[in-house]
Amino acid sequence: MSKTQQLKELGKFLIARRGEITPSEVGLPLVGFRRTPGLRREEVALLAGVGVSWYTWIEQGRAENVSAEVLGSISRVLNLDYTQRQYVWRLADLTPDQSAAPSKPDAAVLQPYVDNWSPNPAYITDRVWNVTVANRSARELLAMDGGTGNILRDFFTHPGTRASYPSWEQEAPTVVARFRSHAARYPGDPLLAAQIDRLCAESPEFAHHWIALDVQEDACGVDILHHPLTGSISLKRTTLDFTVRMGLRLTVFFPVPGTSGQQSIEKLAAEPRTLGHRRAA
């Protein structure tokens, strides 16, 4: 879609949403005959603090440099939800609005998506790498029980998780480079900024690797992980976007062909969830 087409689409979208808002919803009196349902252009402009001519240009697809501030005001008046705001921002070629975060995902709904991968370790994280759900194999392998609930923080601050990586020092710069690549998808996100600041304060190793400004593909790789029950296991890690709106991502580990990985992860899937606690102690 060309820039001109995007602006035309933006205008059509705003017109459609304007037609869905009644004057009473925004505190305006219903006076006189109205030829069309919804708000008038002049009313949206007034409530948003935008000039009528400029708002008219936006609806006509003629405004090439709409600011995030103006779009935010219009979105507020038209009562746009999170998904609608993201759509509007992208049509205007602006960084997606992060001011209204989507609702927290329901873990009970997501749990079957990781359980169905068993015995392969699998978990779902949000955009700051908090673990939303994980199956038993993943919890055992990465010593999640007793940790912070965040994959990145556990990697740098949780002794049990660090013990899961026999070559932790070599893995650390790669993990940070993967996270930097991931974070670039959400520029200006306050939750990610807070996460980075927190980790820099908690972990000198993270701070050291973060200022290296390295990036690396985060979709797949081979991890060597260690567990007291199985010893070291070579696993192929695959990460897929589960839902872009919430920033959820599904990570699944697969045995490397020609290794004993399959038998190892089957042991983990059958193991009662106690070793994770013991290793974290």
From TrEMBL:
Domain of life: Bacteria
GO molecular function: DNA binding
Domain HTH cro/C1-type: 13-85
InterPro entries, A to Z: Cro/C1-type_HTH, Lambda_DNA-bd_dom_sf, MLTR_LBD
Pfam family, one: HTH_31
Protein name: Transcriptional regulator
Gene: mmyB
